[in-house]
Structures are given as structure tokens and as C-alpha cells.
Design brief:
- The chain is α+β, with helices and mostly antiparallel strands.
- It has a single domain, classed as Beta-lactamase.
- The protein is 35% helix and 20% strand.
- The protein contains nine helices and 13 strands.
- The strands form four sheets. Strands 1-5-4-13-12-11 form a six-stranded antiparallel beta sheet.
- Helix 3 crosses helix 6 and helix 4 crosses helix 5.
- It is globular, with a radius of gyration of 20 Å.
- This is Beta-lactamase class A.
- Pfam families: Beta-lactamase2.
- It comes from Subtercola frigoramans.
- Keywords: Hydrolase.
């Protein structure tokens, strides 16, 4: 008797993520199983997901979903700007010192504190602190005007980034002549970049450490990092054996995060971006819950 053909689930559900997870065992639990199941359910509901998690020491791929794709990542591309600023500081480049004025053309609402402050001028390094701590849009634009987008692109190319770019400054409105997004990136390149930062191999050790110091101030622990139990406003030192450095990006229908979590038994670099229909609050909450579930798996692996 002829056997019936099995249904091709990927053709029937093209939005299913193509992913893999490691076979590592932790407390007799298949690590990242919960995250994979949670993200697969989100994909079935129409969420587009790219994700990557790497063991910092062994470089082993622990988890991945379509990590080769270059997708909009909101403000994650600001990391490349910070790398360029840090490189100039450590190389004693004069352009990394001095005071920078904010102007009308730099204005951008959204994230950041500088737009709410009276001070019109700040040092280059302090602006980098504001970008690392609150992803400050105004500080980003002032730095980018000073450094130049071409220099940031050249830095990305020198780092071997082929799918991850800072495309434009932050804009309140994007016209037909503007780049469609602030930045794009692949989860694999971003997780690898953060692994390299942790290893001190991005430009040099001093540059890597400076970038990590700025990003270690990040106050946004609302996504993957919400699972780590850390104080959003104070986590620059080890807490219960955990040390986090991360950068998030948010926009209409986009939630992105890249980071490194160090723990007592391992360190993981990770990146995840979710694009979704943001018309209903329940959709956004489901995405954030999925990111937290992946964070729980990362925590289990490192702790």
C-alpha cells in the first residue's frame, strides 16, 4: 500500500524559523529548548525572528534562527559608532577630544536625556557615555556629524561586517531620499562582534574595553536581559556572579538586543531581533515574553 506523502511543514508555514540549538545539557535540561519552542510559536503567529547565541570561550553556536539574514535592528548600529569613537580615543586621535555643540539639525526625539537638559555642549567621551547608557539619539547625531558616516562605514568594513551597518543618523521622520532604517544587521555578525569585544580583539584591547565600559551602563533591561534579575540602573559590577553588557534597539514593530552575559560557569554573546505587527499591545507583550524566555535559557547556561 502506497504511503501518504508527509506534509512539508515549511512550505505550509513559510514563516517558520530555520534554526538550531545545541545539545548541551544543564541540570538534565536541554538548554535553549524553551527559547526555541517559544520563538517557534511566535514565528507561527507571524513574527519574523533572527537570533544567535555563542559560547564566548569555545565559539560554539548554542542557538540560531536565520542568523545570516540582514534585518532592520533599530539602533543597534550605534555600537559601530561607539567603536570608532573608542578607537580614536585609544589612538590619541585629536578628533576624539574637545567639546561638541548640539544644533537644530541634530535634533531627534525618542530615547536619551540630552534633549531634556539645558547644557548645549558636551565632551566627545561624555556623549559616548550617553549613547551607551540610554542610546541617546541627540548625542548619537552630534557624534555622527563630527565623526562622519563614511568613517563609521569604513570601521565596520575593517571589522569584517558584511551584513551589519549604521545607515543613517536618527530622524523623527524618514523621507524618500533617506535611508529606510537607522541600522541593519545579522544576528550572527552581532553576536560575533560582542564575543570579539569580550575577547578584546575589536581593534585592540583598550578599544574593546572602552566600548564595553560604555555599553555596560545600559539601563534598558526590558528584553532578553529582563531574565537576568539585574538592577537596570546599576549593574556595572558582578551581581550574584553575573556581569552584563548589552545594547537594545526599539522601533515600531521592532525589538532588538545584542549583549554578553558572563556567569560562574560560562559566558554567552547573543543577538536577537524580532519584527512584528505592533498594532495590538498583546503582540508586543508576546514578543517581549519570548525574548525573556530566551534570556532564561542563556542564564541557565552561564549560571
Amino acid at each position: 500500500m502506497k504511503q501518504p506523502m508527509r506534509k512539508d511543514r515549511r512550505k505550509a508555514q513559510p514563516e517558520l524559523p530555520s534554526g538550531r540549538r545545541s545539545a548541551a545539557q544543564t541540570h538534565e535540561t536541554d538548554t535553549f529548548r524553551r527559547g526555541f519552542v517559544s520563538l517557534t510559536k511566535l514565528a507561527l503567529s507571524g513574527v519574523q525572528i533572527t537570533a544567535s547565541a555563542l559560547d564566548v570561550t569555545t565559539e560554539k553556536v548554542l542557538f540560531s534562527i536565520d542568523d545570516h539574514l540582514s534585518v532592520p535592528t533599530a539602533s543597534l548600529g550605534k555600537v559601530i559608532l561607539l567603536i570608532e569613537v573608542a578607537a580614536r580615543l585609544t589612538q590619541r586621535d585629536g578628533s576624539a577630544h574637545g567639546l561638541l555643540d548640539r544644533t537644530v539639525v541634530d535634533s531627534a526625539a525618542g530615547t536619551g536625556l540630552w534633549q531634556h537638559l539645558q547644557i548645549p555642549t558636551m565632551p566627545v567621551a561624555d556623549l559616548a557615555v550617553m549613547v551607551g547608557q540610554s542610546s541617546d539619539n541627540l548625542a548619537t547625531n552630534v557624534l555622527l556629524r563630527h565623526i562622519g558616516l563614511d568613517a563609521v562605514r569604513a570601521r565596520g568594513e575593517a571589522l569584517g561586517l558584511n551584513r551589519t551597518f549604521l545607515l543613517d543618523k536618527v530622524r523623527d521622520h524618514r523621507g524618500p531620499d533617506d535611508a529606510p532604517h537607522v541600522s541593519v544587521g545579522s544576528a550572527r555578525e552581532l553576536s560575533t562582534l560582542f564575543r570579539d569585544l569580550a575577547e578584546g580583539s575589536v581593534v585592540d584591547v583598550a578599544t574593546s574595553q572602552q566600548v564595553l565600559a560604555w555599553l555596560g551602563l545600559s539601563a534598558d533591561l526590558s528584553m532578553v536581559a529582563s531574565a537576568f534579575g539585574l538592577d537596570p540602573l546599576s549593574h556595572v559590577h558582578s551581581d550574584h556572579g553575573l556581569l552584563l553588557v548589552n545594547k537594545t534597539g526599539s522601533g515600531p514593530g521592532i525589538r532588538s538586543e545584542v549583549g554578553i552575559l558572563r556567569g560562574p560557569r560560562a559566558s554567552v554573546s547573543y543577538a536577537v531581533t524580532m519584527r512584528f505587527n505592533d498594532e495590538e499591545l498583546t503582540s508586543r507583550l508576546a514578543v517581549l515574553d519570548g525574548m525573556r524566555t530566551l534570556g532564561t535559557d542563556i542564564l541557565e547556561y552561564v549560571y
